[in-house]
């Protein structure tokens, strides 16, 4: 028997052993909703009433316990009192489930996160499979655990580990969870329910202890030590994201439970959860969550019944920083990789880079020696195309020389099988130009990896009008296997991400040449939430790369680019960035950056070449104005990307900005953030600056039209035709 709702169902089956087996069924991951929790409560209460039930086992259907609260259903909290988390965490989870006069055991497999883990922690024991995934990742959505997790997790694993798991949104495997007491036993999936039933009976018959999690105190550190841990956690949270309040609120709630008792902690948790649920931060992070999932839906590509073809062997042509990084990412994802270079010296350097990347993981304990040897064995270095006869994909990652790239693709066509995908990692040169000497234009695709390729979580996939949808589907599948979020875009200079952000550095250069302090600009941008400012970023990627990419944009968009010689002047003086320990900053041996007073002479020379004078207003520019003058041109270019149909869905640009450029996720992405300010405001500011500083700031037609109508910038474009 059981109860069902529009958002999943609960089944209960009572066995001859007196165990009520309650199963959560809500495909695909048994996510929770208020309806599911009410049905779970009804089944629980029925089990407590029945005389033939001695104990209860809760589990989930089809290999998952419960994948947390359905984010789209959280809005149900707006209902009456019975929908508020306080009611659920205290009246249901605590006073009915945990305080029941019959013992309960959670049988855990697969995803057991968020509300799913909170229910499991309210049971009197937890049995898990070794590969189950357990965690409380609510902070990634701008909220805190709302079903008692802030109070129960510290009592099961200790305050130190609980803070780490909640603040870092850490997901742990079942066998690791067992080592620090989150679960009580590890068994195979086949034995899971049987073991849980036996364990529940053992508690009922007093052969095992009946443990109420909320009343446990043995894992909580002494009060003095606990206060030190909380103080340290607050300092770390403020250091990592000074603009975010919800990590600090989470720490406050945990502290309330330790000092005022678990019941007081539960009520504070409920109050804080309700407040955070409707915060701008939560709305922004929930938007990014859905936007990230939405990038895998591409009209005309993923909705026409295509299935990814098997890709087993991938060749990478070019072993520089990008090429070796791509090779590292591929072998870490279990792909066989051929790495081609022009001579033995370059090849050994490239293979050395891959080994160094893997050895870094080995030293940090993220990889075993056995895994290291197995992974590096997947890499084979070559100097010719002889072994390309059975590759499924080739990724070109050579220097930005059009003629050289054209020759490579012409050679690949001769040596690779007919199904082989030809991908270019270049994002500044038009794909049609790269493919000029090849006949197989339907196999040409852009695969823009961000550096370092094995660490960055995004893959920008660019297609021409001739690219086969099958090729895009295949590359998306490879990206997902590499644990990267694929963003599919149209062809063009800079594709979508680099094009959208080219004004980022140019706006900063414009301000510096007109009198704004360079280091103040970087400070304002990091205070906004970016990992680093435009000048520190230029040093990181290398000033040579900045010149190469900047030149492409100046050539292709001459009417709206700001032409400054500052970066070239630094490069000419062998100040190339981090690699030479001098650029916009100076660097010590550990790559710590410090301002450099010598920079002023380069700025003065650049100012003289540009023929501009210092604007006194820009010398004392408030941080808010700096931020707007840097980011509003980025929004303007993003509008052009949408208007031209390079990207169809504005939310894809939000994901691209967050995952590719480090735009703060708690602001929702570049277009979501822009809409929070309003198209009219952004357009009026750009118009004001364009009258003073020229075409660089001039609002594009898309932005101007939407500002005139008061239409959100993210609203679907009516006439933008998809590239396919």
TrEMBL record:
One Gene Ontology cellular component annotation held by this UniProt entry:
peroxisome
Catalyzed reaction equations = a (3S)-3-hydroxyacyl-CoA = a (2E)-enoyl-CoA + H2O; (3S)-3-hydroxybutanoyl-CoA = (3R)-3-hydroxybutanoyl-CoA; a (3E)-enoyl-CoA = a 4-saturated (2E)-enoyl-CoA; a (3Z)-enoyl-CoA = a 4-saturated (2E)-enoyl-CoA
Q: In which pathway does it act?
A: Lipid metabolism; fatty acid beta-oxidation
Show the GO MF annotations.
(3S)-3-hydroxyacyl-CoA dehydrogenase (NAD+) activity; 3-hydroxybutyryl-CoA epimerase activity; delta(3)-delta(2)-enoyl-CoA isomerase activity; enoyl-CoA hydratase activity; NAD+ binding
Q: Which Pfam families match?
A: 3HCDH (PF00725), 3HCDH_N (PF02737), ECH_1 (PF00378)
Instruction: Specify where it is mainly localized.
Output: other
Decide whether keyword Lyase is in the record. yes
Q: Key word Protein biosynthesis present in the record?
A: no
Start and end residues of each 3-hydroxyacyl-CoA dehydrogenase NAD binding domain: 313-490
Q: Where in the cell is it found?
A: Peroxisome
Q: Which UniProt keywords apply?
A: Fatty acid metabolism, Isomerase, Lipid metabolism, Lyase, Multifunctional enzyme, NAD, Oxidoreductase, Peroxisome
Q: List each copy of the 3-hydroxyacyl-CoA dehydrogenase C-terminal domain by range.
A: 494-587
Q: Please name the GO terms of the biological process aspect recorded for this protein, alphabetically.
A: fatty acid beta-oxidation
Would you identify the family this protein belongs to, as annotated?
In the central section; belongs to the 3-hydroxyacyl-CoA dehydrogenase family. Belongs to the enoyl-CoA hydratase/isomerase family.
Indicate what this protein is called per its UniProt record. 3-hydroxyacyl-CoA dehydrogenase
Recorded source organism is: Carya illinoinensis (Pecan)
């Amino acid at each position: 028997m059981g109860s069902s709702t529009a958002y999943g169902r609960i089944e209960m089956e009572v066995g001859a052993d007196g165990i009520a087996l309650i199963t959560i069924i809500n495909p695909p991951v048994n996510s929770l909703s208020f309806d599911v929790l009410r049905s779970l409560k009804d089944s629980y209460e029925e089990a407590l009433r029945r005389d033939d039930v001695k104990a209860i086992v809760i589990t989930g259907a089809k290999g998952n316990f419960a994948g947390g609260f359905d984010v789209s259903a959280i809005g149900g909290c707006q209902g009456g009192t019975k929908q508020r988390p306080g009611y659920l965490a205290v009246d249901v989870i605590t006073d009915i489930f945990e305080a029941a006069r019959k013992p309960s055991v959670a049988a855990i497999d697969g995803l057991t996160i968020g509300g799913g883990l909170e229910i499991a922690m309210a049971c009197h024991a937890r049995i898990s499979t070794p590969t189950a995934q357990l965690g409380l990742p609510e902070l990634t959505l701008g909220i805190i655990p709302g079903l008692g997790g802030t109070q129960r997790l510290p009592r099961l694993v200790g305050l130190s580990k609980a803070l780490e798991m909640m603040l870092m949104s850490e997901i742990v495997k079942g066998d690791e969870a067992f080592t620090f007491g989150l679960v009580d036993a590890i068994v195979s999936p086949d034995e899971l329910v049987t073991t849980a039933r036996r364990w529940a009976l053992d508690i009922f018959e007093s052969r095992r202890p009946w443990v109420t999690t909320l009343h446990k105190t043995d894992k909580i550190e002494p009060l003095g030590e606990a206060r030190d841990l909380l103080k340290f956690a607050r300092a770390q949270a403020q250091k990592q994201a000074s603009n975010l309040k919800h990590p600090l609120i989470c720490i406050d709630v945990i502290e309330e439970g330790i000092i005022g008792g678990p019941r007081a902690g539960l009520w504070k948790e409920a109050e804080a959860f309700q407040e955070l649920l409707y915060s701008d931060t939560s709305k922004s992070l929930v938007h990014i969550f859905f936007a990230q999932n939405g990038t895998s839906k591409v009209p005309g590509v993923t909705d026409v019944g295509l299935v990814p073809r098997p890709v087993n062997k991938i060749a990478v042509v070019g072993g520089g920083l990008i090429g070796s990084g791509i090779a590292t990412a591929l072998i870490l994802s279990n792909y066989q990789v051929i790495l081609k270079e022009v001579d033995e010296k370059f090849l050994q350097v490239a293979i050395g880079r891959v080994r160094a990347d893997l050895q870094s993981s080995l030293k940090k304990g993220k990889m075993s020696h056995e895994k290291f040897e197995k992974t590096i064995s997947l890499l084979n270095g070559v100097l010719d195309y002889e072994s390309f006869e059975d590759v499924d994909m080739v990724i070109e990652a050579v220097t930005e020389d059009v003629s050289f790239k054209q020759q490579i693709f012409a050679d690949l066509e001769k040596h690779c099988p007919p199904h082989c995908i030809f991908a270019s990692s270049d994002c500044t040169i038009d794909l049609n130009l790269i493919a000029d000497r090849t006949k197989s234009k339907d196999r040409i695709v852009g695969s823009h990896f961000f550096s370092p390729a094995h660490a960055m979580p995004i893959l920008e996939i660019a297609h021409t009008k001739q690219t086969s949808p099958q090729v895009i589907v295949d590359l998306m599948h490879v990206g997902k296997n590499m644990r990267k979020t694929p963003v599919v875009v149209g062809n063009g200079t800079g594709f979508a991400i680099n094009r959208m952000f080219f004004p980022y550095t140019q706006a900063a250069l414009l301000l510096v040449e007109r009198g704004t302090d360079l280091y103040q600009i970087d400070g304002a941008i990091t205070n906004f939430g970016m990992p680093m400012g435009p000048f520190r970023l230029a040093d990181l990627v290398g000033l040579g790369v900045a010149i190469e990419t900047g030149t492409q944009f100046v050539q292709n968009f001459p009417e709206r680019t700001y032409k400054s010689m500052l970066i070239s002047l630094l490069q000419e003086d062998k100040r190339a960035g981090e690699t030479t320990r001098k650029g916009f900053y100076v660097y010590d041996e550990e790559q710590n950056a410090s301002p450099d007073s010598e920079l002023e002479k380069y700025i003065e020379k650049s100012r003289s070449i540009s023929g501009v004078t210092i604007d006194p207003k820009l010398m004392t520019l408030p941080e808010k104005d700096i931020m707007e003058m840097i980011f509003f041109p980025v929004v303007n270019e993003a509008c052009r990307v949408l208007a031209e149909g390079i990207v169809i869905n504005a939310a894809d640009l939000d994901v691209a900005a967050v995952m590719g450029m480090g735009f703060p996720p708690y602001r929702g992405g570049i277009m979501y953030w822009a809409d929070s300010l309003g198209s009219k405001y952004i357009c009026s500011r750009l118009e004001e600056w364009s009258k003073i500083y020229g075409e660089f700031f001039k609002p594009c037609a898309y932005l101007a039209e939407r500002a005139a109508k008061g239409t959100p910038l993210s609203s679907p474009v009516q006439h933008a035709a998809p590239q396919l």
